[in-house]
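Postdoc handover notes: sequence design on the structure in folder B. Input tokens:
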């Protein structure tokens, strides 16, 4: 069921992404043209201290809106786990003694190659934010699970990867063992 790439032409490239126009042939012999956004993987971190989740808020230029999200960042270090640790520290000032990858998903597989690695960060300690130039003004917010769910319901949280990662946590029932662990 694999399609054959006949040609690929880069139409735009910068430090973070490449946009290509690929000509392909399907298994049925149809010839199609696809616009494909190619980006390195990224890490999304769910910071959880046993009572609260931590969100970052920032202006997002492409949608011209302020956005509450879990910390996240492009693969820029030796490993995706190291990227997750550094992004958490830079964006929130938090350090995690426990960082566990809980799953992966494609951002938008119909036109985008990027994969999201979701990490759960626990056993947190507070340090100092080290924001990059484009992150100046980033805010940090601590919320309970119920408050976070209400933010999704009310549309205050609209970031797809944040909502998907939270859904992954709920589907895997990962909060229950963590809540129980906190009570002991």
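Designed sequence:
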């Amino acid at each position: 069921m694999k399609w054959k790439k006949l040609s690929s032409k880069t139409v735009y490239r910068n430090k973070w992404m490449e946009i290509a126009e690929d000509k392909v042939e399907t298994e049925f012999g149809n010839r199609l043209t696809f616009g494909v956004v190619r980006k390195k993987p990224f890490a999304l971190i769910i910071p959880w201290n046993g009572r609260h989740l931590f969100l970052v808020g920032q202006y997002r230029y492409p949608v011209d809106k302020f956005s509450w999200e879990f910390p996240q960042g492009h693969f820029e270090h030796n490993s995706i786990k190291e990227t997750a640790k550094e992004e958490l520290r830079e964006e929130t000032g938090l350090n995690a003694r426990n960082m566990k990858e809980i799953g992966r998903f494609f951002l938008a597989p119909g036109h985008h190659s990027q994969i999201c690695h979701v990490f759960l960060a626990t056993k947190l300690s507070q340090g100092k934010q080290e924001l990059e130039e484009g992150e100046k003004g980033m805010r940090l917010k601590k919320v309970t699970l119920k408050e976070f769910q209400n933010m999704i319901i009310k549309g205050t949280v609209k970031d797809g990867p944040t909502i998907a990662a939270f859904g992954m946590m709920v589907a895997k029932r990962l909060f229950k063992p963590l809540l129980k662990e906190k009570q002991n």
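Context for whoever picks this up: The helical segments are 80-92, 145-154, 160-171, 175-183. Don't rerun without checking with the PI first.
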